[in-house]
Amino acid sequence: MVTKRSDRHRDLERLNRRIISCELCPRLRSYCRKVALEKRRQYRDWDYWGKPVPGFGDPEAELLILGLAPGAHGSNRTGRMFTGDRSGDFLYRALFEAGFASQPVAHDRQDGLRLRHCYITAAARCAPPANRPRPEELRNCRSYLEREFQILKSIRAVLVLGRVAFDTYLDWAAARGKLPPRSSFPFKHGASYALPGGFPRLFVSYHPSQQNTQTGRLTAEMFQRVLTEVRRFLAGVKASGGSVPA
Hints:
- The chain contains 8 helices and 6 strands.
- It is an alpha/beta fold.
């Protein structure tokens, strides 16, 4: 008998193959290939991934983490979300400390890292020049996020990393149900919003970019507080029998 987990795993594998072969955004595909050929000196012996980067994590995830886009010499090099750069170093250490990851480091796709009750994806699946995907490129990727939500039926909370991810999630939700005015959801680190219509609760963090973490705009303590709130919320969902509290 096929289990629910294996069904979701199979569906995610099928979706991820579609993502990896996507050619909808010529500018982004050209940039990813260019970076993969030119490389950074410290990674000159690497065989860069150079393709759209699929999501990564637990098929039974209760938490979905939504980032901006792969880093040119991070995920675009390693082929796994938030793997191989300073943002990933910050994120995975925090997820490990919060119990969502099996180890605090992420080097490559074969490093043994596993996520627990957590799935990581991004608003854009290709590394964009200057870390700025265009609106039409974000729209091209939205169907992949839609499909992830369809497959990951246990998601109860969404943690967005940065303003682009914040807008992407609210745009996705607004296209599928009537939301209050966007002014009802100001972007600020540490915010948490209940969305009508049974959508997963929204938790907000600054993006763990090197600029934000090195300047102190986002500290490890600040990020852990957000993850603690996510943990408390998910524990409350379980205590209430799976319904999403306001």
